[in-house]
Structure formats: structure tokens, C-alpha cells
Amino acid sequence: MLFKLPDPDTLYQALLDRDPTYDGRAYVGVSSTGVFCRLTCPARKPKRENCTFYESVADCIEAGFRPCKRCHPLLAEAEADPAIKVLLDALENRPAYRWKEADVARLGFDPSTIRRSFKRHFGMTFLEMARQRRIREGFETIAGGGAVIEAQLDAGFDSPSAFRDAFAKLLGRAPGTLSRQPLLFADWIPTALGDMIAVTSKTELHLLEFLERKALPTELKKLNKFAKGEIGIGKTEISAQIAEELAGFFAGTKATFETPLAYHGSDFTREVWHALRRIPAGETLSYSELAQQMGKPSATRAVARANGANQIALVIPCHRVLGADGSLTGYGGGLWRKQKLLEIERQYLPQRERT
Predict the structure, then answer these.
(1) Which positions in this protein are listed as binding Zn(2+) (predicted)?
(2) Which of 8, 35, 90, 108 is least surrounded by CB atoms within 10 angstroms?
(3) Pairwise CA distance, residues 14 & 18, whole Å
């Protein structure tokens, strides 16, 4: 089951509202201009009778439309916004700087506009992203064997307690309580859709989550109990393998993952996770369809619960499950990210299905 677009009147209203819900899922071809646009395009809105809606860029091009020069539908969404690129470059150049809205204004941007734009594209504001990046600097210092005070300074925190609190909010433990001889190792992995935390042993991947997932601290506490407190920070061959496979996934060169996994769940939950891994990249199922494929058509709700309990994102592709009506439904990493993951995975479909 691929995306089923709503009726044209609904899409036209989304175009008028510049609704980001359908970014990457629907495009409009305008017969009066010969161009095709994102539904969030800032250009003057065309008349309803001049609009035809398509599921993909390929469909628009095949229908004879050329890309709009204002919303740049051929570019990744964030790249189409020059303000985002400027701020991301600034953050990359000064990762430990304590950014404030006044800094955004000094760069010539309206803070409220930037706040909405980053929230729409990345699920977090620029200031939240900057704070996350600072914590990453400290995390990497500790991973390299540095002392907590060094990590605090590298992360740009003046207060030791503020750094401890920020670190504990993310990982569920203060940096000074981490094991020096861990059984499980936490590693920080940047990806095209945001930073992730991977927790591995020397032989298996136990957790892979986006940092913003609200359940992450709880999941880490469960792993901490499993490891009897022996969780630390560091890289393993397994974390290096999953980082490489994630890079290939986002680059469009590798649709499957071969990293060995450790499942922490009941027999039924594990059965659901195995079933999720059988959904090919670029395809989706509803919860009821997944239950039917498992031979348990009455277990739709239990399947949904097991789907939500997944703590190995992307590798166990719970993002490939939609509502019965084709809606995105819930996703711990954020609906905006679920939408983008499915958009990325369309490239893995056979050519005839993409076009």
C-alpha cells in the first residue's frame, strides 16, 4: 500500500493554506504557467481549474511540467530555504556557541519565522538544535576518554550542574555515573534526518533512536537494568557497522540492514518486529494488514502496541505502518520524520512503481 492522496479539493485547500502535511507526498501542476510546485509554495495561488495534483516529481515531469523556481521542488525541502542553510552553516562553524534569538536576528532573520520553519522541517527549533549540538560536543569528548569537566567546557556550558542535567535528560544518567567498564556502549550517530543514539554490545545492536523520542530516557533505563548498570559511552564494531549502513540508506545505495540485533520484548512483540522487517523499503501496510499477514487478523491492537514498543528505529521499520485510511498515525521520532523516511524510501521502489 503506497500513499493514497485525498481528493483534489482537499489538496487544493492544502495548497491555499500552504499546509506542510503533504510535502514530498503531493505536488501541483499548474496548466496556466506550465510549472509544478510544492503545496507550500509561496507563489500566488492558481485557480482551481488550472491545478492537477500528482504523487511524485516524476509524475509532474512526465506530464510536461517544469519545476518552480520559487519553491524548488527538485531540491530537498530544507535546502530550498536559504535561511535554513545559512543557520545550519553557522551552527556547524560554531557548534559550542550558546545561540540566542538575538543572534538569529543579527544574521538578518526574523526569529519567529525561523522558529516555525525549523519546527516544520526538523521537528525542533534552531535553538533546540543548537543546544543538542552542544551536548553532542560533550558526549564526544567523553567518548574519546575526556573528563566530565572537559566535556562540559567543550559543550559550552558554564555551569557543571546545567551540563549534568542536560546530559541526564538525554541519556537518563549523569555523565559521572557512567560505567568505566561497560557491557553496553552508547554512541552518537549523525544522520540526514537528525542525530541518533545507538546502544550496542560488542556483538549486537540493542537500541537505535532519534534523540527527540520522548521514550528514549525510559528505554535507556530499561537497558541500564538489563546491563546491571554497566552502560557507558563508546564505539564498537557494531556501532560502526550501523553508522555505515545508515549512511548508505540515506544516500540511496542500501535499502537493507545487516547489523545483528538484540530484541528486548515478548515472543509476540518479537514476531511483530520480524514481520515489520519483511515489509520492503518503499512499501507500507496498515496495522490490520500486518496482523493479517502474521495470520492473526484479530490482533490489530496488539500489533499496534508492539509496533510502538520498537526501540530500533529504521532497522525495524515501524515507520512503514500507516493508519487504515493511509494517514501517517503516530511515530516516536515525529510525524514529519516518518513522512520524510517514506519519501526517501520511494527511491528503492522499482522504476515502474515510482513513475
Answers:
(1) 37, 41, 68, 71
(2) 108
(3) 6
